[in-house]
Amino acid sequence: MFNFFAAKDMGIDLGTANTLIYIKDSGIVLNEPSVIAMDNRRGVTLAVGFEAKDMIGKAPSNISVVRPLQDGVISDFDRTADMLKSFIEKAVSGNKIKNFRVVVGVPSGVTEVEKRAVEEVVRQMGASEVYILEEPMAAAIGAGLDVDSSTACMIADIGGGTTDIAIIALGGIVASSSIRHAGDKFNDAIIQYMRKRHALLIGEKTAEYLKIQVGSACLDLDENGDEIITCVSASGRDIISGLPKTIEVSNRDIMMALQESVDIIVDGVKATIEKAPPEIAADIASDGIVLSGGGGMIHNLGAVIEKRTGMKARIAENAFEAVALGTGMSLNDIEKLKIYASSIKRR
């Protein structure tokens, strides 16, 4: 049985890789993978979040383990609704809330139809007002940037499905680019590299592990100017023998695997600057760019951006949680939120 209690405003980062929920006055109360496991025979949800992610690549044929969001947008409406319902119930600890306001972060490149799909999922949870906030704006607020200033700021939010790059001034996005190339594509690149270079088949979880442990946009040098090499073990299936095999994978391997992805991110940054008016570009040249999202924490990505663009680049202090924090913090001033976002009230 649920206990009902007063409305609690909520911010949601409904990400391709992870979903984060922020509740006003409580902070971030949930951070779990955007994965759901379903029993196909009975049509019931078996697990969501971490429990479902542990089933990836291991489930029998009667259980489907899926990520219902792809490239930053909903690809499976019903399963997204089921997953989000489970997350919200977990976030409010067995209580059921109603007539609450929600801010949802979405990629800057989504269509109105895709925004409406997100809004409909949240409305099914009982929300009375839904505000759709573009992720780069949310990330900038969460990273502590002054989005209302006449001096422009620039942010690149590199998530699981999309990389959202934006220049913001006077409470609005002046120029932006949304690239459907981010953390998931990084994982795919690592899988393909391991297959070609080492004849080793690995899964998505192993690729993500390698990305986190030894992922790098460029290598550090020691005092003699030599590359600093670090290695971790990775296991998979040998393509030739078909048997399990474990090898040592270096940060140089992963740097080579991610080279094309890094180039795409840098090109996106350059393209966004090219869209901006000259006065705005002058502000960015002075203050640089802030990186957020899980992909923004790739080792030395900021250094590569600095080298290729001449701009300073730094990682946000709360990079992984920036969008969720921004959606939640924006609830502190509803009038400003109405300027930042589009609001859809229940009819």
Query: Major sheet: size, sense and barrel closure?
Result: 6 strands, mixed
Mean pLDDT: 90
- Uncertain regions: pLDDT < 50 for 5+ in a row? 1-6, 343-347
Supply the number of helical segments.
11
Please give the number of β-strands. Answer: 21
Terminal-residue CA separation: 28 Å
Shape: flat
Side by side, the strands of the main sheet go: 4-3-2-11-12-21
Q: Using only CA atoms, what is the Rg?
A: 21 Å
Which range best describes the helical content: under 10%, 10-25%, 25-40%, 40-55%, 55-70% or over 70%? Answer: 25-40%
* Approximate strand percentage: 25-35%
Structural class: alpha/beta
Question: Explain this structure to me?
Answer:
This protein has 347 residues and is α/β, with parallel strands linked by helices. The protein has 11 helices and 21 strands. It has helices at residues 50-53, 77-91, 112-123, 135-142, 183-198, 204-214, 251-275, 278-287, 301-309, 322-329, 334-340; strands spanning 3-5, 10-14, 18-23, 27-33, 36-39, 44-48, 63-66, 69-70, 73-74, 95-97, 100-106, 127-134, 153-158, 163-169, 172-179, 200-201, 231-238, 244-250, 289-292, 313-315, 342-345. The strands form 6 sheets. Strands 4-3-2-11-12-21 form a 6-stranded mixed beta sheet, sandwiched between helices. A 5-stranded mixed beta sheet has the order 15-14-13-19-20. Strands 6-5-7 form a 3-stranded antiparallel beta sheet. A hairpin with a 4-residue loop joins strand 5 and strand 6 (44-48). Helix 6 (204-214) packs across helix 7 and helix 7 crosses helix 9 (301-309). The longest helix is centred in the last third of the chain and has 25 residues, at 251-275. The radius of gyration is 21 Å and the shape is flat. The two termini are 28 Å apart. The model is unreliable at 1-6 and 343-347 (pLDDT under 50).
